[in-house]
Write a structure and sequence with these properties.
The protein is an alpha+beta fold and about 160 residues long. It contains 5 helices and 7 strands, in the order ββββαααβαβαβ. Helix 1 (about 40-55) runs parallel beside helix 3 (about 75-90). The longest helix is centred in the N-terminal third of the chain and has 14 residues, at about 40-55. It binds zinc ion. One of its GO terms (biological process) is isopentenyl diphosphate biosynthetic process, methylerythritol 4-phosphate pathway. Keywords: Isoprene biosynthesis, Lyase, Metal-binding. It catalyses: 4-CDP-2-C-methyl-D-erythritol 2-phosphate = 2-C-methyl-D-erythritol 2,4-cyclic diphosphate + CMP.
Length: about 160
């Protein structure tokens, strides 16, 4: 058996009136991530971690934001396609771990739902998918507090 580790990072501005979709779950919050797709920075970072570990092109190359096909795209569908491609390359996810840094929505009340949704999309047990929220300590990083940054790490095996 061989294993590979992958890392992914994503950053989106939070904009008033956009649905706040993170980790495949809609959070009750007055602003949400801007983007060509639904802006789900969590699923984007996870997808890039998987693609990176499998030695495949990154998310922006596979689903370019210049392509009208992906306007408003549901990132859950993008991640499902990424899992399919990673599988076709012979790799299977073992676990995923995510840090969400934001002063926007509170993450803790939605951790369980995000873990369950991502576990379903990745074909993993819930305990193999973790999510941690991190405040930015009021330091004004990330567009004066109106941004979300996500770091993801994954392990693959074949
Ligand atoms: Zn993104």
């Amino acid at each position: 058996m061989s294993t590979r580790v992958g890392t992914g990072f994503d950053l989106h501005r939070l904009v008033e009136g956009r649905p706040c979709i993170l980790g495949g779950v809609e959070l009750p919050h007055p602003s949400g991530p801007a983007g060509h797709s639904d802006g789900d920075a969590v699923l984007h970072a996870v997808a890039d971690a998987l693609l990176g570990a499998a030695g495949l092109d990154d998310l922006g190359t596979l689903f370019p934001d210049t392509d009208e096909r992906w306007r408003g795209a549901d990132s859950r569908a993008l991640l499902t396609e990424v899992v399919r491609r990673v599988g076709a390359a012979g790799w299977r996810p073992i676990n995923v771990d995510v840090v969400i840094a934001t002063e926007g929505p509170r993450i803790a009340p939605h951790r369980a739902a995000m873990r369950a949704k991502m576990a379903e999309l990745l074909g993993l047990a819930v305990d193999a998918v973790n999510v941690k929220g991190k405040s930015l300590e009021g330091l004004g990083a990330l567009a004066g507090g109106s941004g979300v940054a996500v770091q993801a790490v994954c392990l693959l095996e074949r």
